[in-house]
Amino acid sequence: MPHAPARARLTPRLRAAFVALLIAGTSGTTVAAGPADAGPAARPAGATPSGDASGLGRDTTQFKGVNWADPRDNFADDPVVLSGLSTSDTYAQTYTKASRVISAFRANLGANTVRLPINPYTVNGRYWKSYRGVIDAASDKGFKIILSYWEGTGPRKDGFIDDPATYWPMWNTVVKAYENDKRVYFEPMNEPHGYTDTEWADIAAKWLDTYRQVPRNRVFVSGAGYNDHVTSVCADPRLKGTYLSLHHYGFWKEYATYDQWVADLKVRIGDCANRTVADEFGSPMTTGFDYNRPAPDNNFVNYLQAVTDTFRELRMGSVYWPGLRTDDTYSLQTLTGDPARPWLATTNQSGADRLTWGWGRGKPVQP
């Protein structure tokens, strides 16, 4: 979730060098060997990548989900620990807790998808064995799981991959563990706003070429910037056949009308709605706003009604930010009950109604 523009920036020369290093890989880093090293141009002309656009379907409405987040907003220089979990939990304890949280997402909201953060500290370290309990529990419950890489915090929170030497081994491990689980989807980076549109497309293409064994219809390529537009990645033929992830937030404007929010969202999607999933969008849920009735003077009501109407109109999947994050006013769920066997309660029923309306269910806004 982009709370504020990044302050740290590399000079153009250093940025170009960093991107080249990332795309080329680093000495001593284990990446997929063989044809992947040849780069995208090595594919014969006219060849069709595995899992191409034909595997995406006519829309993305199959993704009806929420984000489950670390209280620190997923930006961390240590393992990400989802709200309600602990690094001291064993795999079995994590699996039990996650099973109940996932079941609550389904019972309370009708969700079938959860987006989860990963970083090298989580995957390359000791916590990975336990953290896999979340992914496994969600898959066993029949959920789709979107695994997205988050950068670190502090000076590392700059929209760049923190360290190629740990980034690629992280994905080696994750892909090896879940390439055969059709419910697991891979998102190479959350909000790559440090890169230009072209630089980001180059990195996404390198990811696809490195992990050719992953069908493209199980990859989410983030929109450029703060995932705030998908038009550039949609137009890149190297990324054909992937889903595209879009982020869109009401706090990006101090005020806009309903119609202005609709127009703002549609220009960011272009003609790519059939590949796009809004895997972050959100609005205050613990402040008492009623999203089921018009309130033209309220920017957030205008926003949430506009985007959920648009998702429904364009038949786009959406993944709310956050379904669960401790102490976040946007959180649509809150933890209840025994911490060892948690359950969830809905913080704003009208917000939940708008979420499911966007998914193609429920009733329209009441006059």
Kindly describe this structure.
This protein is an alpha/beta fold and 367 residues long. It has one domain (56-358): TIM Barrel, CATH 3.20.20.80. It is built from 11 helices and 10 strands. It has helices at residues 12-24, 91-109, 120-123, 128-140, 164-178, 197-210, 224-227, 231-235, 258-269, 299-314, 349-358, and strands spanning 64-68, 113-118, 144-149, 184-187, 220-222, 243-249, 276-282, 317-324, 333-336, 343-346. The strands form 2 sheets. Strands 4-3-2-1-8-7-6-5 form an 8-stranded parallel sheet. A two-stranded antiparallel ribbon has the order 9-10. Helix 1 packs parallel to helix 6 (197-210) and helix 9 crosses helix 10. The radius of gyration is 20 Å and the shape is globular. It starts with 11 loop residues before the first helix and ends in a 9-residue tail after the last helix.
